[in-house]
Fold Cobyric acid synthase.
Amino acid sequence: MSGGLLVAGTTSDAGKSVLTAGVCRWLHRQGVRVAPFKAQNMSNNSAIAIDALGNGGEIGRAQALQAAACGLESDVRFNPVLLKPGSDMSSQVVLLGEAVGDITADNFRELRPRLAETAFATLADLRRDFDVVVCEGAGSPAEINLRDTDFVNMGLARQAGLPVIVVGDIDRGGVFASLFGTLALLSPEDQDLISGFVINKFRGSAELLAPGLSMLHSLTGRQVLGTLPFDLDLWLDAEDSLAYGRVLGRPAPPVGEDWLRVAVVRLPRISNATDAEALACEPGVSVRFTIEPAEIAEADLVILPGSKSTVADLTWLRESRLADAIMDHAAAGKPLLGICGGFQMLSRTIYDDVESGAGAVGGLGLLDVDITFEQRKHLGRPEGTALGHPISGYEIHHGRVSRRADGLAPFVGEDGCTDGNVFGTHWHGAFESDGFRREFLRLAAWLAGRSGFTVAGTTSFAAAREATLERLGDLVEHHLDTTALRRLIDAGPPTGLPFVPPGAPTQHATGARA
């Protein structure tokens, strides 16, 4: 049997995705044939992967980054079940890359056996093809209300016999209670697989932390495999940290006299928000996610990003008065870009009997096109030219342009178009093409009247992403007990680990089964 590991977390955004990517890059550096795996991801940040027949399919964006850490192209097997929330009560189910229906609280137990069977079979297939598979859990393994249907955390670990390490975010506070409580809430059989802990986002004195690490080891019998430092540079391809008002990345000072201020509307069901990351890599470009009309008014460039629920989010735009701010921004002649769902919102009319079932809905009317939703989702990795530069991207959408007024200039892709200062495209990832990104920023700065803004001309987004992956590998190599980690991967969970009953944490675990 090939080696394996499951990286679990005390919470969402504890650091599972980045630690998984870091372990993958560390193993890849050693010549290990390693692959990532997440049995089920719930995210509207997706990427295009290739299935066994060479067709395009969807996986979570984090698994695409982890694949790159392994030196691999994305594969639908790396994330066999992807749930894309369209509302608080339902999600679209993407199974091995293909949308197959919706899941709700009412039909989950009916669909769960099929999803679990697919996930277990896919992991077994990967373990036959690779030396090591590094699995990522979801949420927390201590979500005890969901344990009997779980196939991504301890359910997966039990089925595949995987050792589990649990990562906790010390920056949130309460990390020792979170780690201890996660273990204590598990059954004895699940606890047998919890093989160690990792503390993430630490800043401060290691000497002050050391007694806590020792006490946690004493209380649980599990080793703390290491402490990862807080690192502000680890922001690319983040899935769970798009806070309102958050400035993306660490913007470098401008080359010229002016900054270019970019406002990305933080839609309730935002998808593929990572489209703006390449802009944030450029010196002098400040990218902020916002739900504030005042920040829209102050921005030079406004971006309406993708949405899993175009019509519902368009309604929200209007109810929140953000639509008025966007219209005023465009009326002032400043640049406005809609990407995928955001592009659809800029249209005259949206005909949607597929996603929302709302039928004909009026758009913002800033681009003279109509959008019609089709049953089959359009997936692809297109290439072309735009603004005089080669460009590539990926498409994931039901809506297609069904009517386009004569005279609209082309922009990016077959459907894409522009009318003066308003731009629309269905292509995600277009700004990762360096030449096109620079030319668009020059055009945006000119339209916004930012004559003092200068594009650096040397930024490589591919190099920035590779540097992130190398940094993740360095963090694992330099801050974790890699000897112990490799032993777990190769030999599986150690035997004789004590059972930790829920109870007073002042008593040391004895190994006795309650």
Confidence is low (pLDDT under 50) at residues 507-514. The CA atoms of residues 236 and 465 lie 7 Å apart. The chain is about 30% helix and 25% strand. The longest helix spans residues 108-129.
